[in-house]
Amino acid sequence: MSVSDAVLAVVQRYVACAETMDFVGRKALWDKDEPLPVLCPEESQQALIGWDALDAYWSASRQSMASLKAKAVDYSVTLLADDIALVTYRSRWIAEMAGAAATPAIAADVRMTALLREKPEGWRYFQLVEGPVDMLTMARQAAQRSAEELFPEITVR
Q1: CA–CA dist 123, 12 (Å, integer)
Q2: Residue 150 burial (CB < 10 Å; 0-12/13-18/19+)?
Q3: pTM listed for this prediction
Q4: At residue 157, does pLDDT exceed 60?
Q5: Structure confidence by residue, pLDDT tens digits, 92-124
Q6: Among 95, 111, 129, 156, which residue's Cβ finds the most Cβ atoms within 10 Å?
Q7: What is the pLDDT of residues 40-86, one digit of tens each?
Q8: Where do the structural domains in the chain lie, given as residue ranges?
Q9: 80 in Cβ contact with 86 (< 8 Å)
Q10: How far apart are CA 49 and CA 26, in angstroms?
């Protein structure tokens, strides 16, 4: 297996953890020896730095969502050093909120930039930054999805 394939396998496992909302599984794909892991979720105004911040975010996510789905495409892997990889990809997530916050499902398209480090147990995240697309693009995409759902027989691709 090539280095790029090994890195992509880890990224794809990370994305797949969304299907079962397996935040413990996601954490296992991070470098446990990294003293200051960084996660920048699109919905957070602040970067989450350190294990306490990441654990609190994953715990809150698990409690606030009834379901989460994610799909990723357009992967690009660049080796920055023998043991450091930069991965970019696009992701779409769809979430149903739990409890009193329950509403129709929400979704977003996000650009992802991740740094992974090679460890004895395999490639592991130590930084992940999510960047939402601009509001105009989000509105256009939402309108297109709505039109496709309402009128699938006349949808133009």
Answers
A1: 12
A2: exposed
A3: 0.82
A4: no
A5: 888 888 876 667 788 888 999 999 999 999 999
A6: 95
A7: 998 888 999 999 999 999 998 888 888 888 999 999 999 999 999 99
A8: 3-154
A9: yes
A10: 16
Is 155 a residue whose pLDDT tops 80? no
In CATH, the number for domain 3-154 is: 3.10.450.50
Cα 135 to chain center, whole Å?
19
* The predicted structure's pLDDT at residue 133: 65
Q: Residue 146 above 90 pLDDT? A: no
Which tokens sit at 86? 């930069």
Three-state SS for the chain is CCHHHHHHHHHHHHHHHHHHCCHHHHHHCECCCCCCCEEECCCCCCCEECHHHHHHHHHHHHHHEEEEEEEEEEEEEEEEECCEEEEEEEEEEEEEECHHHCCCCEEEEEEEEEEEEEECCEEEEEEEEEEECCHHHHHHHHHHHHHHHHCHHHCCC
Joined together, the tokens standing for residue 17 give 């953890």
146 Cβ contact partners less than 8 Å away, ≥ 6 residues apart:
none
C-alpha to C-alpha distance for 44 and 130, rounded to whole angstroms: 10
